Amino acid sequence: MNNETVSSTECTTNAHDLTEAARLQAELSSQKSEPSAPLAGEVNSDDIPSVSIDEGAHKYVLVRASAPGSSETPSRVRTFVYSKQGASYHRNVAEYLLPILQNAGYYDIRITGGGRIVKDSKSKQINIFGYSYGFGAADHELAVEVVEESGLYDGYTLNWSNDGY
Fold first, then answer.
1. Which residues make up the binding site for substrate (predicted)?
2. Beta-ladder partners of 137
3. What pLDDT shows up at residue 19?
């Protein structure tokens, strides 16, 4: 993988973003670790894709959450890999995903880290690397596993590295 894809001059984290990332983590830590009923009219927890990667180079977060169970299916832990075009900070990606998970009844939600994803549909490549100042480095190897298991990017070459920003 070429780590020169995103230059270090694009580092945009500032004190305000670090404070907001910490606030978001604290909010998640204080939430119930027990399942709650999904909000009426919201998405079923199984309908939320585990992976959403926008085209181009963007920040991403790796999120772990417990899916609510039912009488037929036990609750289970799911891992999500989400990037978002236009997200200035990793917390902006998290702020997009977290309400979706919460409204579907997910609980024990944890942002386990972040980094960068470069998705090039033309060359069918996805590169995952770097870290988040606010959430720390994600387990990029796990992120690649989640992307592969999703089946959304069959035929793509996936690379990961702990190098670069």
1. 59
2. 114
3. 79
Q: Are 147 and 81 in contact (CB under 8 A)?
A: yes
Residues marked active site are found at: 90
Query: pLDDT tens for residues 43-79?
Result: 567 789 999 999 999 999 999 999 887 667 777 899 9
- Structural domain tally of the chain? 1
Tokens of 131: 């870290």
Reading the block at residue 7, the tokens are 């230059």
Neighbouring CB atoms inside 10 A of 37's CB total: 8
Determine, yes or no, domain membership for 26.
yes
CA distance linking residue 42 with residue 105, whole number of Å: 9
| Residue 52 within a domain | yes
- What CATH code is carried by the domain that includes residue 94? 3.50.20.20
- The DSSP-derived string for 3-16 is GGGS-GGG----HH
- Residue 96 structure tokens: 């997009």
- Residue 119 annotated as binding? no
143 lies in some domain: yes
The amino acid sitting at 149 is E
Please tell me the pTM assigned to this model: 0.79
